[in-house]
Predict the 3D structure of the following.
Amino acid sequence: MSKFDDVVRKASTALPPEELDMTLVCQKCNDQVDVGLYFATEKILTWTCPAGHKSFIEGFNLFG
Ligand SMILES: [Zn+2]
């Protein structure tokens, strides 16, 4: 597969992240966050606390 095909395939399968209203806790400072971003293609849930720490969960199933 050419590099170009690979890029096109990724672009066509990737979904834009979805904003989820849920209570999350920063994995670094335990600050509370009320919204997370869910990347359905990669099954990654990520959120950023007010101090700018990025937290994430891999293999997160939104509908499971
Ligand atoms: Zn934090």
